[in-house]
Structure formats: structure tokens, C-alpha cells
């Protein structure tokens, strides 16, 4: 074997190339990689909506000894574990550390909403003796993804007396599923001439829900009435109750292993329940009292710009941390909260766009993440000229790099495609507004925002490893 030249040795020393995480993974780590993937797939099947994700995390929190923070909790001490709930659509988990909270905390923020179809307030109608539901798409979708696939219905209906009715139809093997029709190819000559964004108009995303008529000749809309009758008998609801409901239509498919080697995970909603799940599992893994408080903040509405009461833009986070400080005897005025934020560090946990070999032209290959190369860090996000994004400082990126390398975590860096190809944002900008240093970091994903997204099990593991170490000991 020939010796390396001086130039080859110098190039290896000075250049940077990410590594395939499978090749650097220790043999004793492999069982945990696959075990974590099974837990993650179970979560994806249980939590296809933000409400279901919150319910899941509450149960896991209780298992790990967390208690819901309420006005009955007057005092907290190091080692205490509490959670806050915001309108059943976002959750904050906090593990109190040894150091005073005013000296800062380590935070991972992520979002639990995903692109989907929402029912309109008055969704049910009958046409040509079929019953259908009208929808309004939520977040960035390719509308043609949602036709001709089995769908399920999830949500909650609040009746006029304030009682709640939870609905999940289409997930059990014995459940019916739902469906959005498409025009048959034999009659599609006009449709096929349209741009992909126009081939399926938004108003055509109508969910087929029934076809059997109610047996009464005097009723005009017999199929609609039969659907209402079924809903009333099973859930005790009327059509008016649908006005006060959060009903979401999502793919009925379960999370599955992908590939002969079972190295990949395919499922709906991995953007961004991947990072949410891993952040929660990271804080749940802390058995000891951390030096600094560890906080995980999982929010709603990121996919539509983080607006609304359950979003990262809302004041829920500030109020919750202020309550923690008060319970610790550290809060006197708003300056205490501001200094606490200034002393803190954060990760915005969100997925990254993995380089797709079939569509390489949309990416800058030099600045793209690769499936299987570990957790991603992104210095900045945004659209085109970095609009609506957040950018980590060089100093903070340097600390993060050193931390990753010191903890033997396989990592890579990348951006969301070519500059003028598109772009996107995360909740990092809302964390940065509080004067908290933050960087985007998460799992690379193929086919992001589709009905069946792809991740690598080893990337999921490396992201978990980073998150858990960050919450425990980042300084």
C-alpha cells in the first residue's frame, strides 16, 4: 500500500467532509438505534395531530415523574419536573437544574403540527348522491399528493354544552377509510396540460364519506342524512356541532421500515414530529439533576407561520418561565426574566431537506445534507435573501461544533436547496427574539411535506444523542 503524499495528508487535515454515520457507529450502539426507531414509529402512529402529540407527551411525562404545573405548586426545587399545557395544542416540559434559573437554561423548541387537510366549518354536503366533506389545506402541500390515497379523520368536537367528543376513524384495521377522487386518465387531456400546482384545485379536495341513502322518500338529501344519522348515533353530534370542531384529515398509512436493509423510516408527519419526539425523549432520559434547567417546548402552527394562541409567537413560553422563576423564588420583575433568557442557549429542532438523487438540480450539492450522515445543523434559514429566517452567530455555531465533536456525535451542515429555488423557516426566529442564542438542528428528510416522508434510523439516533447531551451539559 503506497504512502500518502504530503498534499494528501494536508488535504485530509484541512478540508471538511461529513461522514456516513453507519460507518462510524459503534457496534454497541446499533441495538439502541433500532430500538429507538421502533419507539419513534409507534409515536408516529399514535400522534398524527398536534392534540394527539400533546396527549402522548403528557402520558410519557407522567410515567417519568412529571407533574402538571398549576397554581397549587407554590415552590419548586432542583430536580423537580413539571409540564405546562397550552390549549391542548402545545406543551412545555421543564426539569429544574442545580443552578439558579436566572443563570439560564438549555432549551429545545420544536413543532408538532404537520401539513394536512382541515374540515371547513360547514363541511358536509351531498352531490350526485354521494356525501362529501369540504376541506381547507393547512401548510405547504402538493395538492396532487392527497388524491387517490386512503385517509383517516382525527379531531375533537366541542358541543354547545361544552362537552368534548374525540373522533379517530380510519386507523384501526376494521375502520373504514376516506378518499379524495381524481379524474380518470381517459378524460384527463385538459388536466394533464396544467401546471402541477393547478392540476388539482384546492376546492376539489373533497373527502368522500358515504353513498348509502336514508330510506325516506320525503327527504331531499338522503345520503347526507344517513351520514348525519351515523355520526349522531356513534358520537351524539349534530351538523351544527361541526362548526366548533378541530377535525383533521391525514393519511391512514402506518409508519413502516423502508428498504431491504430496514435502515429507513417512512411515515406521515415526520416534519416535525421527528424532532419533537426526540426532544421529549431526550429530556425524559435525564435521571440525574442537570446543572442548568432543561426545557423542551413543543408548539403548534409552525407550518402556517407560527401565528395564534398555540404557536411559538404566543406569550405562553414567557409566562411559563416566569411562573417557574416565581416558584423558585427568583422572579421580582421583568428584568429577571430577560436576564434569564439572555443567559440561555437553544436548539430549534426542525428537519432538514436531504439531498434527493432524483432531483439534484434543486439543491446546492456542496451545501446539502445527506441521508445517513447524522444530525444536521443549519446556520440560517429563510427564503431567498434570508427573509423570515433566523441566523446563528459565528460564535454560537463554533460552540455547537465543538460540543458535537467533543461528544462524538456524527453531524453535518446544509441549507434548504438553491438560493432562489424556494426556502422555509422554523421557530428559531421566535426564540431569537427573546435574546436566546439558537441554531436550527434536526433530522434530514426526503420527500418533505408529502404524505409519506423518509428519514434514516441512524440520523434519528444521532439527533437524539445530540439533543440529550445538549440538555444535560451544554454551557
UniProtKB/TrEMBL annotation:
Q: Which InterPro entries match?
A: Peptidase_M18, Peptidase_M18_dom2
Per the UniProt entry, the Enzyme Commission number(s) are 3.4.11.-
Any keyword Protease? yes
- Entry's Gene Ontology molecular function annotations: aminopeptidase activity; metallopeptidase activity; zinc ion binding
Q: Does the keyword Metal-binding apply?
A: yes
In terms of domain of life, where is this protein from?
Bacteria
What's in the GO CC field? cytoplasm
Pfam families named in the record: Peptidase_M18
For activity, the cofactor(s) needed are:
Zn(2+)
User: Which keywords are on file for this protein?
Assistant: Aminopeptidase, Hydrolase, Metal-binding, Metalloprotease, Protease, Zinc
Biological process, per Gene Ontology: proteolysis
The entry sums up its family as follows: Belongs to the peptidase M18 family.
Q: What is the recorded name of this protein?
A: M18 family aminopeptidase
Species this chain originates from: Caldicellulosiruptor hydrothermalis (strain DSM 18901 / VKM B-2411 / 108)
Amino acid at each position: 500500500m503506497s504512502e500518502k503524499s504530503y498534499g494528501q495528508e494536508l488535504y485530509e487535515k484541512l478540508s471538511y467532509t461529513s461522514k456516513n454515520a453507519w460507518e462510524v457507529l459503534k457496534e454497541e450502539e446499533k441495538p439502541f438505534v433500532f430500538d429507538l426507531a421502533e419507539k419513534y414509529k409507534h409515536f408516529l402512529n399514535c400522534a398524527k395531530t398536534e392534540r394527539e402529540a400533546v396527549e402522548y407527551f403528557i402520558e410519557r411525562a407522567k410515567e417519568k415523574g412529571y407533574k402538571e404545573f398549576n397554581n397549587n405548586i407554590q415552590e419548586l426545587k432542583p430536580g423537580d419536573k413539571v409540564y405546562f399545557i397550552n390549549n391542548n395544542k402545545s406543551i412545555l416540559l421543564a426539569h429544574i437544574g442545580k443552578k439558579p434559573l436566572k443563570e439560564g437554561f438549555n432549551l429545545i423548541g420544536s413543532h408538532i403540527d404537520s401539513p394536512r387537510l382541515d374540515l371547513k366549518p360547514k363541511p358536509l354536503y351531498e352531490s350526485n348522491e354521494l356525501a362529501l366533506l369540504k376541506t381547507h389545506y393547512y401548510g405547504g402541500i402538493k395538492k396532487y399528493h392527497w388524491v387517490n390515497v386512503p385517509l383517516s379523520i382525527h379531531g375533537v368536537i366541542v358541543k354547545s354544552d361544552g362537552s368534548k367528543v374525540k373522533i379517530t376513524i380510519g386507523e384501526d384495521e376494521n375502520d373504514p377509510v376516506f378518499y379524495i377522487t381524481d379524474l380518470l386518465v381517459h378524460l384527463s387531456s385538459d388536466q394533464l396540460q396544467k401546471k402541477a400546482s393547478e392540476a388539482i384545485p384546492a376546492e376539489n379536495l373533497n373527502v368522500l364519506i358515504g353513498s348509502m341513502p336514508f330510506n325516506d322518500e320525503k327527504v331531499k338529501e338522503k345520503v347526507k342524512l344517513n351520514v348525519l344519522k351515523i355520526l349522531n348515533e356513534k358520537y351524539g353530534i349534530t351538523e351544527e356541532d361541526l362548526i366548533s370542531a378541530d377535525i383533521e384529515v391525514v393519511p391512514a398509512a402506518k409508519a413502516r421500515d423502508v428498504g431491504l436493509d430496514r435502515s429507513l423510516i417512512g411515515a406521515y408527519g415526520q416534519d416535525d414530529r421527528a424532532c419533537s419526539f426526540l426532544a421529549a425523549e431526550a429530556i425524559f432520559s435525564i435521571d440525574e439533576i442537570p446543572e442548568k434547567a432543561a426545557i423542551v417546548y413543543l408548539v403548534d402552527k409552525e407550518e402556517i407561520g407560527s401565528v395564534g394562541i398555540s404557536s411559538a409567537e404566543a406569550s405562553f413560553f414567557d409566562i411559563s418561565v416566569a411562573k417557574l422563576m416565581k416558584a423558585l423564588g427568583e422572579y421580582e420583575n421583568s428584568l429577571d426574566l430577560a436576564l434569564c433568557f439572555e443567559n440561555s442557549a437553544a436548539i430549534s429542532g426542525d428537519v432538514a431537506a436531504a439531498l434527493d438523487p432524483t432531483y439534484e438540480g434543486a439543491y446546492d450539492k456542496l451545501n446539502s445534507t445527506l441521508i445517513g450522515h447524522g444530525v444536521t445543523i443549519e446556520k440560517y434559514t429563510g427564503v431567498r435573501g434570508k427573509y423570515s429566517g433566523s441566523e446563528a452567530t459565528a460564535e454560537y455555531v463554533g460552540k455547537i461544533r465543538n460540543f458535537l465533536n467533543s461528544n462524538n456525535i456524527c453531524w453535518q451542515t446544509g441549507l434548504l436547496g438553491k438560493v432562489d429555488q424556494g426556502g422555509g423557516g422554523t421557530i428559531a426566529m421566535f426564540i431569537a427574539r427573546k435574546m436566546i442564542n439558537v441554531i436550527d438542528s434536526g433530522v434530514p428528510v426526503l420527500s418533505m411535506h408529502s404524505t409519506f416522508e423518509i428519514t434514516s434510523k441512524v440520523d434519528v439516533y444521532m439527533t437524539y444523542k445530540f439533543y440529550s447531551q445538549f440538555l444535560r451539559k451544554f454551557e
